[in-house]
Specification:
Shape: elongated
Number of helices: 11
Number of strands: 11
Structural class: alpha/beta
Radius of gyration: 22 Å
């Protein structure tokens, strides 16, 4: 779907809702679009800076900024209550939870996500997990006595495979450039990626894994990428390889990963996302010496609030223009991200 704005957007209100509830608003209703997240003044300011006004969800609502990434049913209900909506802003880069709504409404509603907006903090976290696994911090942090065996390797000069070529991947590539690494990007297209030494298509993933010292998973979660990393991929990787996943837990077969770590098929895994998520108490990954696990907090609310505000401001302005130009993070209903 091309990023075209629906007709008749001028002079209407839009609403930001949280967990499906329309927000009480004490603000002017005149103006092309209104967006208001609950208890987020900087986002309100972003909308107003773009020329929007606020209003409760209703028949005249033309846009929704949806803040609850865990409540697709709430958004479905909101879309039913506001049949005139032509634009929906989603809060995260990953939109897999909303895939059915994007497919159902994508012919009349333009969906935009936060893809690329949180690239800096997430890439920074990916770098932290990279360095942590290389320096065996997953073991050092659990130690209760002084270790005598030297362990750990440097990132300098290593072969890094990055799966995905979105904003997070690009920022990660920029961050690791000073380490003089060799970067291979795996993506749907073979078009060159800035900063990468080579780019290959997804069907060549198994060809590049055997030489990888670090593999960073930064791809979108779709039907085609589910369990992209399974037993076969871990089997062909170096025993010294590190896997870092800051995308979606479902991109990796968790049982296969546990086996790979236990049997030494790979050396370590740095995970900010898991499948299932949250990772249950007592899951073997928690006690696996080769795993560093963080609770899906590569981008905390404090980090992302101003970044989302900027995305809201940009896309509100694009929506109000009525030209279809200027939207950032447009979701492709066919690709699903």
């Amino acid at each position: 779907m091309s990023p075209t704005a629906p007709s008749g957007t001028r002079g209407h209100r839009a609403v930001v809702t949280d967990a499906g509830a329309p927000l009480p608003v004490d603000a002017p209703t005149a103006g092309p679009v209104a967006i208001l997240p609950r208890a987020a003044d900087l986002h309100v300011e972003a909308v107003r800076t773009a020329g929007g006004t606020v209003g409760e969800l209703g028949d005249d609502t033309r846009g929704i900024v949806w803040l609850d990434a865990r409540d697709p049913d709430g958004l479905a209900a909101a879309l039913s209550r506001a049949p005139g909506v032509g634009w929906v802003q989603l809060p995260f880069a990953g939109v897999d939870a909303f895939a059915h709504l994007i497919a159902e409404h994508g012919d009349r509603v333009l969906f935009t996500s936060a893809k690329g907006a949180y690239a800096e903090p997430v890439a920074e976290h990916a770098l932290a997990l990279t360095l942590g696994t290389l320096r065996v911090l997953q073991q050092r942090a659990r130690a209760t006595s002084w270790a005598t065996e030297p362990e750990g390797v440097s990132l300098y000069g290593r072969n890094v495979v990055v799966v995905g070529a979105g904003g997070i991947a690009l920022e990660y590539i920029r961050l690791v450039a000073p380490f003089e690494v060799s970067v291979t990007v795996v993506r749907r297209s073979s078009d060159p990626v800035p900063g990468a030494d080579r780019t290959v298509t997804t069907d060549a993933l198994d060809d590049v894994l055997p030489d990888a010292d670090v593999v960073v998973v930064a791809a979108a979660m779709t039907a085609g990428t589910s369990k992209l990393f399974g037993a076969e991929q871990f089997r062909i990787m170096k025993p010294s390889a590190r896997l870092v996943n800051i995308a979606r837990g479902g991109l990796v077969d968790t049982d296969a990963l546990v086996t790979a770590l236990r049997e030494g098929q790979i050396a370590a895994a740095g995970l900010d996302v898991t499948d299932p998520e949250p990772l249950p108490d007592g899951h073997p990954l928690w006690s696996e010496p080769g795993a560093i696990i963080t609770p899906h907090q590569a981008d905390t609310p404090d980090m992302v609030a101003p970044l989302l505000a900027e995305r809201v401001r940009t896309n509100t302005g694009a929506f109000l223009s009525g030209t279809g130009d200027g939207f950032v993070g447009v979701v492709d209903p066919t690709a699903g991200y």
